Amino acid sequence: MRLNYVETGPADAPVVLLGSSLGADQGMWAPQVDVLAKRFRVVAFDHRGHGGSEVPDGPYTIDDLGGDVVELLDTLEVEQASYVGISLGGAVGLWLAQNAPDRFHRFALLCPPSNPAENPQMWTERAAQVRAEGTQAIVDATLGRWFLPEFKDTEPVRRMLLDCPAEGYAACCEALSTTNLLPGLSTITAPVLLITAESDTSVPPETVVPLATQIPGAHLEIIENAAHLVTYSHPEVINPLLLAHLG
Ligand SMILES: O=C(O)CC1=CCC(=O)O1
What we know:
The chain is an alpha/beta fold and about 250 residues long. The chain is built from 11 helices and 7 strands.
């Protein structure tokens, strides 16, 4: 699988991978990249079916999405990296922490859905809607979940969602419909920073807070007055937390 990625920062610095949310591309990390690139070789990538990555026909699985990231490390000839992921990218991070522990130093997982398979119908219906009508059918509702009304700079994210290939978006919804990462949480050995947003209706804090006791040694931060895409709306809060955790 050929994943699109953008590298920033010194080539000899420790590597940090950035995994995006459903329907967005690596450009969503713009508020983080320059800050992280002062210390790290930052590799912001597009999941399969998203941005400039290949768009195979779905359905995809979480094994596909996680396996793509391991393959990306191989392509980059990087033995070990740290990983920051939000939303779908956070679920992929939970998979990597459980299935490829030897390839990662540390994880920062923001608003990660840990058991979206709990409500498979919601995801398969959304997949069918997007295949039939395109991503424009879900853009307004998505932005309504991702940002509080007072956050106005949503246009770049709207553009990303509209540009996302319908098949890629739908196939990732199908991946979520079969994903349950709860059983393996206690096997995670890497240091994990969990971040949840107080007003996140996509991945509510009630589903993230318990992970902090189920993942050994995990550290939890709850961001007040913020919704799902907290990296984009609150970089002044998130960036220092990421730098402190990634070391
Ligand atoms: O609200 C959304 O569409 C974003 C999302 C991706 C995974 C998830 O659980 O929510």
